[in-house]
Amino acid sequence: MADTNLAQAVEATHDSSAYDTNIKFLLADKQILSRILKYAVQEFKDMPIEDIMASIGADIEIGTKPLDAGLSNMGRINASSTEDNIPGEGKIFFDIRFTAYHQETEMKFLINLEAQRSSDPSKLGYHLENRIIFYLARMISAQKQAEFYHSDYDSLKKVRSIWLCLNKNEDGDSIEEIYLDRNTVYGNKRDPYDIDLMRGIIINVRNGETVKDSQNVLISMLEKLLSKSSVEEKKRILTEKYGMIMTTELEGRMQTMCNWSEAIKEVSFEEGVKKERLNAIERMIQANLTKAQIISCGYTEEEFTEAERLLCANA
Question: Cα–Cα distances in Å, from 128 out to 46, 86, 121, 142, 171?
């Protein structure tokens, strides 16, 4: 089989030091993004996968630089900064963001995809739903002077923030939505106007080794993609069951993920979580993110200090 982007992405996601980066590039493959849109975003559910892939713009942005240069088969990514800086509001960094065009309605969608290790408020220090609402609001407000000018608010583009949560238990596979609604609390109901500008989507996938296949096709595919199965088994399932083309990149990212899974297999859960968080902070420090930026991602000052100490000790 000739090397392709998808194949390399599958194999590269198994390196412990690069797991977070690789999983973003793995999810940013258009073959993966198109299936997420089809099965999680209502407006795309009736479109064929091939048409959805063609509808995804060339402006896919990922919050970190790619590890491998020149990977562009299947029209994958233009990696660039995903920093969103609004004066007076501070900075946030999106994992993945891109545009997609609904062919039938000629409607443009601005989409953000986040990979979340945990949705537990006790670990995050906040409720994930509030962060999703914040991201949606920023995606709306950032459109001024970009998608519309002056008071042309009817030119606002629809935004979708999709959150892939990876830590659910055996019966935790689900897809949830957060959106605006309209309710007449007094008087006659007005002629409805479509206010579906912003919608948050939470995809909960399970990480157990013995869980049965999900009845949801998207969750089943994602659980196979992110599982601890061998790369060869993943490639077989993704090609035979889900019709994907094994690009070099996808294979590589999957391989790195498998290596990462093996590295943490014998670490206790609590120790593993702590180590993962410290490793993530170390990578962000090495990527020149500031202390304020790192803490804004849900980490504590104590964790930042510890990660900084470990980096100095290992220098």
Answer: 29, 22, 7, 21, 20
Q: CB neighbours (10 Å) of residue 70? A: 6
Strands 107-116 and 96-102: antiparallel
- Spatial contact of 238 and 244, defined as CB atoms under 8 Å apart: yes
Contact 231, 251 (CB under 8 A): yes
Residue 183: its H or E element: none
- The tokens describing 190, both together, are 């007005």
Name the 3-class secondary structure at 176: strand
Distance separating alpha carbons of residues 157 and 302, to the nearest angstrom? 40
Integer Cα distance of 9 and 6 in angstroms: 5
pLDDT tens digit sequence for 271-285: 667 888 888 899 889
pTM of the predicted model as reported, rounded to 2 decimal places: 0.73
- Taking CB atoms within 8 Å and a gap of at least 24, the contacts of 79-83 are 79/25
Q: What is the mean pLDDT of residues 164-186?
A: 86
C-alpha separations of 198 from 45, 57, 110 in Å: 17, 19, 10
Which helix (H) or strand (E) is 149 found in, with range? none
